[in-house]
Amino acid sequence: MSETKSCLADRAAHLRQTGRLPSARWCPSPNFGPRPAGSGISLLVVHNISLPPGQYGGPAIENFFCNRLNPDAHPYFKTLSGMQVSCHVLIRRDGHCVQFVSLLERAWHAGRSVFNGCPECNDYSIGIELEGTDQAPYTEAQYQALASLTSLIMVAWPAITSERLTGHSDIAPGRKTDPGPAFDWTYYRQCLSVRALANGFSDSGGVP
Ligand SMILES: [Zn+2]
User: Fold this and answer.
1) Ligand 1: distance of its center to the CA of 144 in Å?
2) Per residue in 9-29, pLDDT tens?
3) Any idea which residues carry the catalytic annotation?
4) Cα separations (Å) of 169 from 45, 132, 178, 204?
5) Structural domain span for residue 57
């Protein structure tokens, strides 16, 4: 079923007001702060995470973003001890979404980063984590959930144009590698175009 343009616009208006995705499970992280005054929301950053790496399911990612990860539960977890990070939304392997930080707030996902010469991407971006690794193919359910989320976000914040969808590795080169070669940017953009056309929007960035 395609969504009507007005329905999408209503959902986007609600999102812009509340910062909360009704379709996501709310799992609040303490790791966020206010966006600096005057910084709009104009970038979407795609990441990956799995804890331990390459293992899916389980509570470790949520515990990590909520500062509850037990360092003794797995040798890898010790390397994360004391880190305070978050993202806005995690997309699980089955496409289910978990939201940690309001999209209106500044989540701590990008770290030291630059996009088009503009530093501190956390100030003006939305960070979405895909449960996965750099090498293993992401699931169809994840592409569909990401495309659905992205198309709604692009209507809510039209400054996020299709040129301003990026990967963590692109804004922190040499330091970060996610979402990795496994992430199919062409397919992601195809999924977005299909949704944009079905929703009655042009595929050039969510502008009618
Ligand atoms: Zn990342």
Assistant:
1) 20
2) 999 999 999 999 999 999 999
3) 129
4) 9, 15, 5, 24
5) 5-198
